[in-house]
Specification:
The structure holds two protein chains of two kinds. By secondary structure, chain A is of the alpha+beta class. Chain A contains two helices and three strands; from the N terminus they run ββαβα. The chains are: A alpha+beta, B mainly alpha.
């Protein structure tokens, strides 16, 4: 009973309502995908958090390296013109 | 349930109906208490939550059934009085439900056998002529479907797992199987309630329960034990030695502090 560390880690995503995106809520251990869905239901949807679940093996997620974050994200900092806030919107346009 | 041409049977008395409700309620209540014993002890925190979720569903079922039984009885007993102030011989749960947790495999086998049974029973009770009972059963069917999915998937994992898990879970099944005899063996009360269109026809339940059990056991590569002699009828108040201990724990607080609130 103590040797359960061989259960791989899964990341859990929940869609709160129809039409919304699945959002990451946490992780859990499970022997396989079927068990991961059952565990996700039991661990993360006890308070009606969602209508749909995704699970994915944590090891299948390819993440950016935190030590690269300066190179990856810093250059965007001084490029405010990329936010579409410099346009004059004609009054006639109701929805944009 | 009863044939159209047969003379209408006398409607069951309130006492009979209360007794029938207690059978359903007590099986859920006692099993909930057993599952609650796993909290903090399950092999993984995810299983801890899974077993507790099932326990809470079962507790909810028993609360609705006990409240209804108390109303029908009309003696002023509410769900708490029925759950905490009855003694062992007054409990009507299936003897299987009170069997100790044992190891995780024992718990899975006990759970699977009862889940499959409750699903068959609740599906039929959802069409009961007793509308309150039908409502409770319809809610319980949804919960029980998940319970069965959980226990079946574990039974298959353990049965079709390693040689050790297979041998151990087969031993659990051999040990617990005799207690299933009572589940589908209708006595006079079961028959009267089925004939009245209120209760489930246990012969029909047995047929589909066995089919379901056999299907899952085959997938789990487990062998169904032969039926043997059986002497416990928890549903008539004749229990194994385990219920008294369970009730001592479950009822300790309300009995030693009557009217305690939190």
């Amino acid at each position: 009973m103590t040797e359960r560390n061989d259960w791989p880690l899964y990341e859990v995503f929940i869609r709160a309502r129809g039409g919304l995106d699945h959002r990451h809520v946490g992780s859990l251990h499970a022997a396989d995908a079927t068990m991961a869905i059952e565990h996700a239901r039991d661990v993360y949807t006890r308070r009606q958090e969602g209508v749909s679940l995704w699970v994915v093996r944590s090891s299948d997620i390819i993440a950016s390296d935190p030590t690269d974050s300066d190179a990856l994200f810093e250059p965007a900092r001084d490029k405010v013109y990329r936010h579409p806030t410099f346009y004059d919107i004609p009054k006639e346009v109701e929805t944009l | 349930m009863s044939a159209a041409a047969a003379p209408a049977p006398a409607a069951p008395s309130a006492t009979t109906r209360v007794e029938y409700l207690l059978r359903l309620a007590d099986t859920s209540l006692v099993l909930a208490q057993r599952l609650g014993e796993w909290v903090g002890h399950a092999p993984a925190i995810e299983e801890d939550l899974g077993l507790a979720n099932t326990a809470l569903d079962l507790l909810g079922q028993s609360r609705m059934l006990l409240s209804y039984a108390g109303t029908l009885e009309g003696a002023g007993r509410d769900e708490d009085a029925l759950a905490f102030l009855r003694s062992e011989h007054e409990f009507r749960n299936a003897t299987l439900a009170e069997q100790p947790n044992g190891d995780f495999g024992d718990t899975v086998v006990r759970q699977f056998l009862i889940d499959a049974y409750q699903l068959e029973v609740f599906e039929r009770l959802a069409a009961s002529s007793d509308t309150r009972l039908a409502e409770i059963a319809a809610k319980s069917v949804k919960e029980t479907r998940y319970h069965l999915r959980y226990s079946s998937s574990w039974l298959i994992r353990l049965g079709d797992g390693t040689p050790e898990s297979h041998a151990r879970v087969q031993a659990s099944l051999d040990r617990l199987w005799p207690y299933t005899r009572e589940l589908c063996d209708p006595d006079e009360l079961d028959r009267a309630m089925a004939d009245a269109g209120i209760g489930a026809d246990l012969h029909a339940v047995r047929e589909s329960w066995l089919k379901r059990v056999d299907g899952t056991l085959a997938e789990a590569t487990l062998r169904r034990p032969a039926d043997g002699p059986y002497r416990w009828y928890g549903k008539q108040g004749r229990h194994s030695e385990h219920l008294g201990h369970l009730l001592a724990v479950m009822q300790h607080l309300p009995r030693s502090n009557p009217g305690a609130q939190w």
